[in-house]
Design goal:
Layout: H1 7-34, H2 39-47, H3 66-79, H4 81-101, H5 104-115, E1 121-124, E2 140-144, E3 147-158, E4 165-171, E5 181-187, E6 193-197, E7 209-220, H6 231-267, E8 269-270, E9 273-274, H7 279-307, H8 313-337, H9 349-361, H10 366-378
Parallel strand pairs: 1-4
Antiparallel strand pairs: 2-3, 3-7, 4-5, 6-7, 8-9
Helix pairs in contact: 1-3, 3-4, 3-6, 4-5, 4-6, 6-7, 6-8, 6-9, 7-8, 8-9, 8-10
Bound molecules: flavin-adenine dinucleotide (FAD).
């Protein structure tokens, strides 16, 4: 076991940190206040080759390992959850799913420009009446000759107004429950696609989230991902990668909460001493600091399994569950440490607290992960090998695990 980051990983970490410090942190308070998503940040991330960091070079990416993606997400969320969420859906949920399940033609047409950051991908699973209960979805895809006709409404879709390509899950057979779902690559420019942002969110206000409406959208057969009825498995395997990036991002939020709190602990004095000298404040700092370490270890373990080409649903779920709860607690304690000042946007911690809530809900709520972990421990849940595996890293070589 080697816990050291490689030289390449450290260098990516440095690049993202510098970028976040210079190009996100000075402006984020304003963007968050105005509810503005900045597509130019994605363009800059593409310039820095960070939109396809763990996609093989032959498909337009940089070909680095999966833990490098975790590092990118960790550092990005130190700046704001909105841009980490963008990378989570673009790379984790969309591009990596194309890498795992796409045909060579689909990879060339959609994955290459996405990995290069020239096109942006999003992920449309959730519907007004189907969140945790994916099989309850109502969107339909009806085969008609050499294409399908898609109808339905997706909601809470990150990057809805920004993305060029959506992975849309729809029922090809409504009588088959979760076995009747099929995913499609839908281009924004296809006739009948409309999007609309949701306003008034608690957090991630600098992000873009909303509805995708599909009205008789004609999608060629060549844009179907996997076989008919394979959609549930594909969605769950996509979530193995999305959740990994969410967990890694949560580490960044804990880190940001800790950094802000440490600074404030040394500045603020009560009863004649720095508040950091009070043991009850130290308790909050100790919890943040230990949870940061534990969360990163859980994330890197999941990444290590991905590098080895092994199934990691259990480990990724644990990392996501633990890290997101820990990030919420860290942000909450960071506000507490700042006292009344933490309650205003004079300090960033109130934004951290608002931002930390969505990751406890999306990509499997806290309750869904709790159930999963209970079922794994009890032996009620077992993961079978998938028809298509995420490629092991180093790409093109036989697994070293
Ligand atoms: C900011 C944001 C961005 C998002 N981005 C995307 C995106 O890009 N793409 C996408 O497809 N979706 C996205 N989502 C949607 C998200 O994945 C769903 O909100 C999530 O899956 C939960 O579904 P739901 O909101 O319908 O809650 P429900 O499933 O209705 O759950 C409501 C409550 O009931 C609990 N519950 C449900 N079932 C059980 C059970 N069996 N046992 C115990 N408790 C249970 C839940 O834990 C929750 O507390 C996003 C959400 C947010 C907030």
């Amino acid at each position: 076991m080697n816990f050291e980051l490689t030289e390449e990983q450290r260098s990516v970490q440095k690049v993202v940190r510098k970028f976040v410090d210079k190009e996100i942190i000075p402006y984020i308070r304003e963007w968050d206040k105005n509810g503005e998503f900045q597509p130019s940040i994605l363009k800059r991330l593409a310039d820095l080759q960070l939109m396809g960091v763990c996609i093989p070079e032959e498909y337009g990416g940089v070909g680095m390992d999966y833990n490098t993606l975790a590092i990118v997400c960790d550092e990005l969320e130190r700046g704001d959850t909105a841009y980490r969420t963008a990378v989570s859906v673009h790379t984790g949920l969309n591009s990596m799913t194309l890498l795992q399940w796409g045909t060579e033609e689909q990879k060339q047409k959609y994955l290459v420009p996405q990995a290069q950051g020239r096109k942006i991908g999003a992920f449309g699973l959730t519907e007004p009446n189907a969140g945790s209960d994916v099989a309850a979805m109502n969107s339909t895809a009806v085969r008609n000759g050499d294409h399908y006709i898609l109808n339905g409404a997706k909601t809470w879709i990150s990057l809805c107004d920004i993305a060029d390509h959506f992975l849309i899950f729809a029922k090809t057979d409504s009588s088959m429950g979760h076995q009747g779902i099929t995913p499609f690559i839908v281009e924004r420019t296809f006739e009948g696609v409309e999007t609309k942002a949701i306003k008034g969110k608690l957090g991630i206000r600098a992000g873009n989230t909303g509805e995708v409406i599909l009205n008789d959208v004609k999608v060629p057969i060549s844009n179907r991902l996997g076989e008919e009825g394979e959609g549930f498995k594909i969605a769950m395997s996509a979530l193995d990668n999305g959740r990994f990036t969410v967990a890694a991002g949560a580490c960044g939020l804990i880190n940001a909460s800790l950094e802000a709190s440490l600074k404030y602990c040394h500045e603020r004095k009560t009863f004649g001493k720095e508040i950091g000298k009070h043991q009850l404040v130290q308790q909050m700092i100790a919890k943040m600091s230990s949870n940061l370490e534990i969360s990163r270890l859980l994330v890197y373990k999941a990444g290590w399994l991905k590098n080895g080409g092994e199934r990691n649903t259990r480990e990724t779920s644990l990392a996501k569950w633990f890290a997101c709860d820990a990030a919420f607690d860290a942000a909450n304690d960071a506000v507490q440490i700042h006292g009344a000042y933490g309650y205003s946007d004079e300090y960033p911690v109130e934004r951290y607290l608002r931002n930390s809530k969505a990751p406890v809900i999306y990509e499997g709520t806290r309750e869904i992960h709790t159930i999963m972990q209970g079922e794994y421990a009890l032996g009620y849940r077992n993961d079978k090998p998938l028809r298509q595996k995420l490629p092991a890293w180093p790409f093109g070589e036989v697994s070293v695990h």
